[in-house]
Amino acid sequence: MVLSIVLGIVVGIVGFLPLFAGFQLTRKATGTSALGQAGALMLGVLISFLLLLGALMVCVFFMRDVAVPFTFSVIGALLVSAVAFGIERMLWKRTEKG
């Protein structure tokens, strides 16, 4: 069960990487291309969702007995990654201005 929790944490962090990449692509898009900014973010969300859903389905089909701890650890790691990214961005912008 510990292995499933550790793998869930890894999958959750890796599942956040497409969202981070989509955010980075929006920063490179021009200000006049709203579709390019929205498209990059939506592509990141789609890839992240497919990656997480695929990992959860593999876990449910092949290791049903550890699916619940794996799922909770994936969700927790994804949330912690998103909050840590948000805090880091907020602190970085604050030090950049001052």
How would the blueprint of this fold be written?
Blueprint: H1 2-28, H2 34-62, H3 67-97
Helix pairs in contact: 1-2, 1-3, 2-3
Note the gap between the termini: 47 Å
Number of strands: 0
As a percent range, the share of strand residues is under 5%
Low-confidence stretches: none
Percentage of helical residues? over 70%
Q: Please tell me the total number of domains.
A: 1
Reading the helices and strands in chain order gives HHH
Shape: flat
Main pleated sheet: none
Question: Mean of the pLDDT scores?
Answer: 87
In DSSP terms (H or I, runs of 4 or more residues), the helix count works out at 3
- What Rg do the Cα atoms give? 16 Å
Return the structural class: mainly alpha
Task: Tell me what the structure shows.
By secondary structure, the chain is an all-alpha fold. The chain has one domain. Helices cover 89% and strands 0% of the residues. The protein has three helices and no strands. Helix 2 runs antiparallel to helix 3. It is flat. The N and C termini lie far apart (47 Å). The mean pLDDT is 87.
Question: Which features characterize this protein?
Answer:
98 residues; mainly alpha
Tell me briefly what this model is.
With 98 residues, the chain is mainly alpha-helical.
